[in-house]
Amino acid sequence: MENPEYVLEMQGIVKVFPGVRALDGVNLKVRPGKVHVICGENGAGKSTLMKIINGTYVADEGTMIYKGQQIGPHTVTDTLKMGIAMIYQELNPIAEMTIAENIWLGREPRKGMFVDYAKMYADTQELLDRLDIPYNARQKMYELSIAGHQLVEITKAISVNASVIIMDEPSSAIGDEEIEILFKQIFALREQGVAILYITHKMDEIFRIADEITIIRDGQWIETGPAGDYNPDKLVARMVGREITNVFPKDTTVPIGDVVLDVKNLTQVKEDGGRFRNISFQLRKGEILGFAGLVGAGRSEVMRAIFGLDPISSGTVTLDGKEMHVKNTRDAINQGLAMVNEDRRTYGLVLGRSIHHNASLVNLKKYTKGLIDDKAITADVQKMRELLQIKIANEDVEAATLSGGNQQKVVLAKWLVGDVKVMILDEPTRGIDVGAKSEIHKLMTNFAREGMGIIMISSELPEILGMSDRVVVMQEGIIQGILDRSEATQESVMKLATRGVSKK
After folding, report:
1. Which helix (H) or strand (E) holds 144?
2. 268 with 276: CB under 8 angstroms?
3. Contact 17/56 with Cβ under 8 angstroms?
4. The predicted structure's pLDDT at residue 404
5. Pick from 135, 30, 147: nearest CA to 83
6. Residue 113's CB: how many other CB atoms inside 10 A?
7. SS3 content of the chain, % helix, strand, coil (to 5)
8. pLDDT in tens, 320-345
9. Which phi and psi (to 5°) does residue 277 adopt?
């Protein structure tokens, strides 16, 4: 008989991967019409539990009950048919297909034996319009940003008319405007009786949308309670098993030295992409220079061009007094630049290779003395493992098997073992839990103290304000202003970030 109190129950769930007990007897009870937030550090088992629910993984032990019925082994397709949809943290759209084709893949409307494309595109456009998502159903996925891909995934989940929607870090790659679209839909779905399972590390999101909170630590269920029973400090302490007293450990006593990077009038014309113009700024040794702006402001595009990933039409980049001539990323690396890209799966890691292999990718010169010195690589990897608290069984595990946060830590480790003058960090703490954020921020401070110049792009204003010596604010491909730390507030940054933006 169906239990009206819970739409989904997970009882005593155990999942073991080689060398890791990812889940150890986890319980979960989800009520219809509630937003149930799952909290925990990276590697705690949150995503693993969600993937067991949706059929990606099979539990080694435990029971799943959906609408009062025990559910045996099931696939992702089975789960969708039941009425459970999942938005993944890591997006894998088919780039050459349209938005509509991605949304309806495997369940296309048909007219006899053939796909009813007219209905598919019409239904998709109606859904996009209803959700206030400003896309055309016939657009190809490769035309969209990462934020666009995420919005399409959200649309796909809603199109299923599910009773349970799982959202794994859905806001990690989208800006404030898209987040408002997301939350509007979450509130509407809640009113319709849909249960939302929501994974996020962002405290403001948790306390804005959560009805109930479940905390998982090291693969074990810790507790479940109403959101009103928690405040940020209590929640963090329960998540990590310790108090995090200083998430933004900015040391304002770190000496700021001479100019290490001087960018003058950097422009990318339309033929080369046309994403920015007349970009000028300086970065000093020991300085953390924050880049703020709305999604699409051009921050990442400027850094990609400086690092040799995209073309520069005009302008100069000078490093340590010498003009740089960067034709590709190897030139940039050899001259002392490093870049942690926001898209770690595409640009940061070789997912099918080991942590050992990934850590050595950009530093082979350091490890090569005739033959590759595997012992030196192993020693550096072990140091980085301990420093960044990377949760792996050993250095031979594939990068693809790690959680999103641990993947990001490996990307950082890859660069930190090299000789770097300027470190570009594009969303360095995206998808990383609060404990790991604090560790990465401490590392940034330490590197600045050693004289490294750091550029940090972040969509999280508290991170920008907490860690930056100065803040560069961009909007629609130009710099609207550069603020000293004493001048930078949420209000002053947003005022510059929205200057000249037309109201729709």
Report:
1. none
2. yes
3. no
4. 66
5. 30
6. 5
7. 35, 25, 40
8. 999 999 989 889 988 989 998 776 66
9. -155, 145
Residue 201, token pair as written in the block:
């590390």
DSSP at 45: S
CB–CB of 222/238 below 8 Å? yes
Token pair for 493:
């940054």
- Report residue 307 as tokens: 């690092």
Domains of the chain as residue ranges with CATH: 8-240 (3.40.50.300), 257-336+422-498 (3.40.50.300)
DSSP reduced 3-state for 135: coil
85 — alpha (psi -120 to 50), left (phi > 0) or beta? beta
Contact (Cβ atoms closer than 8 angstroms) between residue 260 and residue 285:
yes
pLDDT, residue 65, reads: 95
Beta strands in 99-254 (DSSP E): 110-111, 114-115, 164-168, 195-199, 212-217, 220-226
* DSSP type of residue 106: T
Cα 42 from Cα 44, distance rounded (Å): 5
Q: What is the pLDDT of residues 277-306, one digit of tens each?
A: 999 999 999 999 999 987 778 999 999 999
498 burial level (CB within 10 Å; 0-12, 13-18, 19+): middle
The Cα–Cα gap between 15 and 432 comes to: 22
The residues with which 29 forms a beta bridge, in sequence order, are 9
